[in-house]
Amino acid sequence: MDRPKVVVYQEASVDGRVAYTPDVSMLYVFGKWRGMMGDSTLYPELMEWIKSTHHPQAFLEGSGTFVRKDCKLDDLPLFHGDTQQLYGDFLPDSVLKDPKLQGWGVLVDSKGLCRNLLAWVDEGIHGLILVAKQTSPEYLADLQRKEYPYLVAGEERVNLPLALEKLRTQLGVTCICSAGGGKINGALLRAGLVDEINILVCPVVIGGMETPSLFDSPDLKIDDWPTKLNLISVQSYDEGHVWFRYEVIRE
């Protein structure tokens, strides 16, 4: 498969939690999370290291990073036209030929949950939505009206291998960084798409039965094997943080 290199970078507690309670977007509790995790300079510093080392052209997030389950969504006008023209990849020239474009903020959103948040904050980074053939035509029509690019990959939900292949072949993405949380990381892991894992372990224990963890994914079956890793490096810091860097071993 012709796809980008996938680098996972995540901040987690000692017990592998990437949030402190279930079903709450980190956008709503970021201040508290930062207070729990300590040294606020390490995460952005290591992210800058990843950027300078791997030169990712895209950053992957899941919709759960931005939207709570009880969030009220804006109503979209019903679409009465030909839906066929909606279910092809939409990459408007107004975005592709923008001289300021430096990369992509890729959001997995087959359910149209992020309709209220169609923006990306970093200068030069434009949002791009990954959708599926079951995504509502109203959402896709809204994206087209706003000239907001999207790629169609999968039937009922986003097919990540296909989506990554499209990012590589259509947009030239050779490396993508995922810091989107347990569900998106878990989906990448189970699909065999992860190449490198960077974990900044913070000196705190969170616990919980349903609190999101590093790789939330379906349980392995008795005949399955875990993903084997090779330790590249480990570094500890004064406040008790430890940065582990692993590469995935391909069988």
CATH homologous superfamily annotation of the largest domain: Dihydrofolate Reductase, subunit A
* CATH hierarchy: architecture of the largest domain: 3-Layer(aba) Sandwich
- Give the strand line-up of the largest sheet: 5-4-3-2-6-1-7-9-8
Number of helices, where a helix is a run of at least 4 consecutive DSSP H or I residues: 6
- Secondary-structure-based class equals alpha/beta
The secondary-structure element order is EHHEHEEHEHEHEEE
Tell me the distance between the termini: 16 Å
Could you tell me the number of beta strands?
A: 9
Taking all residues together, what is the mean pLDDT?
88
The best one-word shape is globular
Q: From the 3D structure, determine the CATH topology of the largest domain.
A: Dihydrofolate Reductase, subunit A
- Which value, in Å, is the CA radius of gyration? 18 Å
Q: Which class of the largest domain in CATH terms?
A: Alpha Beta
List low-confidence stretches: none
In terms of DSSP E residues, the strand content is 15-25%
Profile the largest sheet: 9 strands, mixed
Give the proportion of residues in helices: 10-25%
| Number of discrete domains | 2
Description:
By secondary structure, the protein is of the alpha/beta class. The protein has two domains: 135 residues, Dihydrofolate Reductase, subunit A (3-Layer(aba) Sandwich), CATH 3.40.430; 95 residues, Rossmann fold. The chain contains six helices and nine strands. It has a nine-stranded mixed β-sheet, sandwiched between helices. The two termini are 16 Å apart. The model has no long low-confidence stretch (mean pLDDT 88).
